[in-house]
Write a structure and sequence with these properties.
5-stranded mixed β-sheet; 7-stranded mixed β-sheet; 40% helix; Aspartate Aminotransferase, domain 2; binds ligand LCS
């Protein structure tokens, strides 16, 4: 593949290396270990003087193909494939936070990305402050002399709040801080944070990157070789590597990212418009609607509004529950970004472990219903919602 290949060409070809049997797809190297040609070559591998594979936790050709593909799509120098999105989050926290250090994070992030700081990293002396990062002044005010990371999710799970990546990067770098962006909701097809100034980007590949709701996984992409090497060493020592079989499936899913994203987004735009004019709906948050508070920012930093919608019904929590209990096509399930439509209630599901007060402050209200729009025919998706509304 030529270096300046365009996005869709990269999706199909990036990461694949010549194979002894000329296989068109990178095979599953389902092996835990690799033999050395000689004791000397083994020594060179461990010294880093030879790029031979050693042991699958330290690297594997199937996972490397995925790492290189996502790094190429994000415009980074190297990828690190890990067992889950949370392994990506915690590898980054482990790498850059330590006793006496401080992180400023979006208040609305995937529940465990926040809870792991509050419940576990706090045990090792890490301080964290959670603010609405869509307001840059709040981010600036939260920075302390010991702040090491600004961590943002944009769009945020589940509030769909958008944070200005360029402004956060400028602010972070002015203070010698790194900017980490969880790009799970957009995927590199719609947003490339490294191009906007971020230092490290991460994904739960469980979502849009794999896109088929059949594998849990994560990936980190670093902007510099130094950051890549450091994060890689933390990951291999902590042991959160992705398995080759997992990587094969994610690589397979990745190839259709653009067409899945386009189709899901087209459905989401229509569904958001439908919901916004529905008499039983109180509010809708979707970056493609002019009513979204950061509509202009989303248009500037994203290549499209994505496929995630949050909304609330006039009848509040009870009405939302009735709606969720009556959908038939959409599954009542957590996760997102797959080919199938999913509906869930963040306050009692994905974000249940956050305190009530923190949920309120972060905008994760009891009435919030989250819809991950799939690639089914729009007519069937909307017909399903319409019939569920008759029970509300
Ligand atoms: N980052 C974001 C933005 C996420 O939405 C999730 C999972 C993760 C990281 C963690 O990834 P995992 O370890 O699950 O691969 N979000 C989920 C959600 O909203 N419902 O179920 C999982």
């Amino acid at each position: 593949m030529k270096k300046d290949a365009k996005f869709n060409t990269k999706l199909i070809h990036a990461g694949h290396k010549p194979e002894p049997y000329h296989s068109v797809i990178t095979p599953i190297y389902q092996t835990s270990t690799f033999s050395f040609e000689s004791a000397e070559q083994g020594e060179d591998c461990f010294a880093g003087d030879s790029d031979g594979y050693i042991y699958t936790r330290l690297g594997n050709p199937t996972t490397r193909a995925l790492e290189d593909a996502v790094a190429s799509l994000e415009g980074g120098v190297g990828g690190i494939a890990v067992a889950s999105g949370m392994a990506a989050v915690t590898t980054i926290y482990m790498a850059y936070l330590g006793a006496g250090s401080h992180i400023v994070s979006s208040a609305a992030v995937y529940g465990p990305s926040r809870v792991v700081l509050e419940k576990h990293f706090s045990r090792f002396g890490v301080e964290s402050t959670f603010v609405d990062t869509s307001l840059i002044d709040l981010v600036a005010a939260a920075i302390k002399p010991n702040t090491k990371l600004i961590y943002i999710e944009t769009p945020a799970n589940p509030t769909i709040a958008i944070t200005d990546i360029v402004s956060c990067a400028e602010l972070a770098h002015k203070h010698g801080i790194l900017l980490i962006v969880d790009n799970t909701f957009c995927s590199p097809y719609l947003q490339r944070p490294l191009e906007l100034g971020a230092d490290v980007v991460l994904h739960s590949t469980t979502k849009f990157i794999n896109g088929h709701a059949d594998v849990v996984g994560g990936v980190i992409v670093a902007k510099t070789p130094e950051a890549h090497k450091f994060l890689y060493s933390v990951m291999t020592n902590m042991g959160g590597n992705m398995d080759p079989h997992q990587a094969f499936l994610v690589s397979r899913g990745l190839k259709t990212l653009s067409i899945r994203m386009e189709r899901a987004q087209e459905n989401a735009m229509k569904l958001a418009v439908y919901l916004e004019q529905h008499p039983k709906v109180a509010w809708v948050l979707y970056p493609g609607l002019t009513s979204h508070p950061q509509y202009e920012l989303a248009k500037k930093q994203q290549d499209g509004p994505g496929a995630m919608i949050s909304f609330g019904l006039k009848g509040g929590l009870e009405a939302g529950r009735t709606l969720m209990n009556n959908v038939k096509l959409a599954a009542l399930a957590v996760s997102l970004g797959g080919v199938e439509s999913l509906i869930q209630h963040p306050a009692s599901m994905t974000h249940a472990k956050m305190s009530y007060v923190d949920k309120q402050k972060a905008g994760i209200t009891d009435d919030l219903v989250r819809f991950s729009v799939g690639i089914e025919d729009y007519e069937d998706i909307v017909e399903d919602i319409q019939q569920a509304f008759t029970y509300v």
